[in-house]
Amino acid sequence: MKTLTKIILAVITVSFFSCSDDFLEPVPSSVLSDANYFNTPEEVETAVINIYDGIQGVNSTSTNDNHGIMYEFYLTEMRSDNTRTKASEGEAAQFENYSITTNNGIVQDYYASFYNVIYRSNIVLANLDVAGGSAAAFEAEAKFTRAYAYFNLVRLFGDIPLIDKIISPEDKETAYTRVPTSDIYELIVSDLQTAVSGLQDGSKYRASKAAAETLLAKVYLTLNRYSEAQTLLESVMNPGRGFALEANFKDVFFNEGNNEIIFAIGYVGDTTDSQNFSAEWLNAVGRTSGVNYVTEEARLALDALGGNRAMYSYRQDITQPSQYQVVKYIPDGDTNLGINPTSTDPTKAGNDWIVLRYSDVLLMHVEAIMAGGLSTTSSNALSSFQLVRDRAGLTTPVASISRQELLDERRVELAFENHRLFDLIRMGEAESTLSAFSNANGYSFTSTDLLLPIPQRERNLSNGLLGQNPGY
User: Does the N-terminal or the C-terminal CB of the chain have fewer CB atoms within 10 Å?
Assistant: First the structure.
C-alpha cells in the first residue's frame, strides 16, 4: 500500500493470519500465532496494518486466495444499471442479468474476504492489553475497519452472522447464525462512534477521524438518521480539515493521495501490493475478456449530465467500437487523455481504489438536508450541490434539487466507484429503476435480487445453521 509499504513487514504479514478452508477458523502455518506473537505495541501495529492488506486482497487468479475489494465491482456496479460484461458470458454475466447462483465463486470470495477482514480486526481488539499508549488509537482503527467490512456485508447480504470477538472452531452457533440487520447496524454505529472519538486526521490509506465521520454519516443516511449525518458531514466540510475538490476531475484518480481523497485502498504497481481489477475492465487484457463495461444507459447519462467528467469516466473500445470501457483506474494509461500507466504490466496495476472522497461528502450533505423528502431549496444544500457541478463545468446556478436530480448527480460524479446500487437502495429507487433497466435489456430482475445469496459453501460448512435469502 502506498504509505504502508515503507514499513518493513515482509516476515510478519503474516504467518498467523493464514486461513484454513473455513475462513472463520484460521490456523497457524508456522510457530508464530496470535497466542505468542503479540508482546509490544509495534507487534500489534503489524496486525493493524495487516487489516488493510486483507481489504486490499491478493493479486492472483487463484480461487484459493481472498481478493478483497478487487472483486467488489462485480457485486455492486455490475448489479446496477451502470456496467455489464462485454460478451454476456460466464460466471460474471450472472451479475448483469440477475441470475446469480448460490455457488457463484465471486460472491463466495467477497463474503470470505470481508469476514477475514473482520477476523483481522478482532485479532487487534483481542490484543490491546499490550498496545500501551497506542491502545486507544489501535482500537479505533480496528473498529473502523470492522465497521467498514460489516457495512458492506450487511448491505449486500442482509441478515448475517455477527462475530465481534475471536471465536473457537467449535463455536459454530456464533459463526453461522444470522442475526437481524438491526443488530449488525448497532455494532457498526458503535464501532464508528469509537473510531470518530479515537482517531486523528492525517492518513488517507489508514483510518482517520474524517473517514470515520464520513462512513458513519453514510450509515446514518442508510438508517434515515439525517440530522446526525448532516452534523458529521459538516464537520468534515470544515475548511480547517483540509479537504477540497480537485480542480481537474482527472486528477482525482491519477494524482493519487490528493486533497479530495478521504480514504483509499492503496496499491503499488509491479509489486506484490499491485491489483488486477483494472486490467479486467479492458479488452482481453486481464483474467477475463472484459467486465465492468459501460452500459448504454450510463453512457447516455454521462453524455447528458456529466459535463467534463464524461471523457474521464468512459471511452470507446478501440478494437470493438460498439463497446465502451471505464476510464477511471486505467492501468496502462491513455495518451489521448494524458493518463500515464501505473505499471509495466496492466495485471499488476498501481491504481488506488478510492473508498471515500470529498464530492461524496458534498452530495451526501444534500441528501441529509433533503431528509428523505422529494426535493430541497435549502441554500446549504444548493451550495454543496453547486460545488460539484461547477467542477464539472456545469456552472448554471440551481434553485432547487429533486431526489432524482441528486441521484443523477451522484451517478455521473461517482460513476463506476461502486456507489450506484447502494444509492438506489438507500433512496428507495432501486426496484423501479432496476426493473425498468432489466425489462429494457431482457434481464430477469426481481425485488429479491437486491440481496445476494448466502454462499452455498458456507451453508454446507454450517451443517444447516446458516439460512438462505429469499429467491435463492
Answer: C
Q: Each residue of 297-319: pLDDT tens digit?
A: 999 999 999 999 999 999 999 99
Q: Which among 163, 195, 236, 178 is positioned nearest to 468, based on CA atoms?
A: 178
φ/ψ of 62, rounded to 5, equals -80, 135
C-alpha cell at 219: 450509515
Q: Is 229 left (phi over 0), alpha (psi -120 to 50) or beta?
A: alpha
Specify the amino acid at residue 257: G
Q: What is the pLDDT of residue 78?
A: 98
For helices 226-237 and 358-370, what crossing angle results, to 10°?
Answer: 150
Q: Report the alpha-carbon angle 246-142-107, nearest 5.
A: 80
Rounded Cα distance between 278 and 290, Å, is: 10
pTM of the model: 0.93
pLDDT digits (tens, 9 = 90+) for 398-445: 999 999 999 999 999 999 999 999 999 999 999 999 999 999 999 999
- Closest Cα to residue 424, out of 410, 440, 438, 412? 410
Q: For cell 492518513, what's the residue?
A: 203
**Element at 324 (helix H, strand E):** strand 324-326
CA–CA separation, 214 and 403 (whole Å): 21
What are the start-end ranges of the H helices in 248-295?
Answer: 249-254, 277-280
Q: pLDDT, tens digit, for every residue of 41-53?
A: 999 999 999 999 9
Q: State how far Cα 270 lies from the chain centre.
A: 23
Reduced to 3 states (helix: H, G, I; strand: E, B; else coil), residue 354 is strand
Please list the residues that pair with 349 across neighbouring strands: 275
d(CA 431, CA 445): 9
Residue 463 in 3-state DSSP?
coil
Are the C-beta atoms of residues 77 and 292 closer than 8 Å to each other?
yes
Q: Angle at which helices 296-305 and 403-413 pack, to 10 degrees?
A: 100
- Give the C-alpha separation, 39 to 17, whole Å: 17
Contact call for residues 468 and 454 (beta carbons, < 8 A): yes
pLDDT in tens, 455-468: 999 999 999 999 99
| Residues near 426 by beta carbon (within 8 Å), at least 6 away in sequence | 221, 222
What would the pLDDT profile of 73-118 be if each residue is shown by its tens digit? 999 999 999 999 998 988 999 999 999 999 999 999 999 999 999 9
What DSSP designation does 128 have?
A: G
Cα distances (Å, whole numbers) of residue 216 to 164, 368, 372: 18, 12, 17
